[in-house]
Amino acid sequence: MFQLLTTCGKARQGRLSTPHGDVETPMFMPIATKGAVKTLSSEDMRALGAQILLSNTYHLLLRPGLAAMERLGGLHRFMEWNGPILTDSGGYQVFSLARLNKTTEEGVLFQSHIDGSRILLTPELSMGMQRAIGSDIAMLFDDVAAGDSTRERYEQAMDRSLRWAARCRSAFDAGADAPASAVRRQLFGIVQGGVHEDLRARSADGLRSIGFDGYAIGGLSVGEPREDSYRIADFVCGRLPEDKPRYFMGGGMPEEIVHYVRSGVDLFDCVLPTRNARHGTLFVWNLDPEAWHPVREPEHADFYRRLHITNEACAFADEPVDSHCGCSACRTVSRAYLRHLFQSGELLGMRLATIHNLHFYLRLMECIRVDISPSA
To answer: Which residues have a catalytic role annotated?
Structure first.
């Protein structure tokens, strides 16, 4: 299901096969948390060249719910998206909604932020919900510790995540369809352990002994220093099998993605391009991406800048957001007009900015893949 095509140093170019098509890696996954990328349609995502989307088990469990998702025929049909979908298991909400939950060995008791009702999310329920969603790639349900946790808390979360990993594997396998073809749904493990290499090693080794279709690096980009994220990602990649895809969860800024690719990571997701867009911050190239070598050249962080479109300097700027970009926003509107839309509270401004930022991220991944290729 994963074919490693070529390498450049530790950077890898590969192909991940799923029931809904192939994903060329390294690849960035736009986030469709509740079944939609904010302000955009599934047709927009196809036009942008998105190969895979990420949705969230916890939020879809709350609304529309497991029974509704089964009745609706799964998320692909519901949102009219015919490409691959990866689903986060709900484990991140253990961290992000800590004030609304209580974690025990059985699972996590959540208080719904919608109506206050109580929901016990267990590894088994997470697997069942991801099956109802129809995820091409399901993530195991894990315990995520905050970035400023004590070693004791990191170890507790890592050990519990390993125990839950075995339960997820059993539940996933018990609910698996008889294979209709060589391509089937996949389950990824998640390496935990905070910023401690010995805990990460125990987690990675434990997950490999259970056996998963791919492996994610979790529990980073949650408040720890960037240097620790870089160190741990590099360390974990060195302990993961070469013939399985590697996924860095929740990171990050463009220069971080380049760094993690150079460490051997294949898949990424992050809210930054869409969240920044809705607040009028756009990613703009400082160079011609066609002439850039992100993997083969020395690493640097000044290949882009962030443009704040609401700044006064854009008020009369009769030029595109980015002269190196070919997205529909840059082809059709000026900086001045986009600023006007934000100043006027027009939702079109958020939509155009989101199109641009996702185009930037997806083109970044294309530049990386081209540079890894032997023909580069």
So the answer is: 88, 269
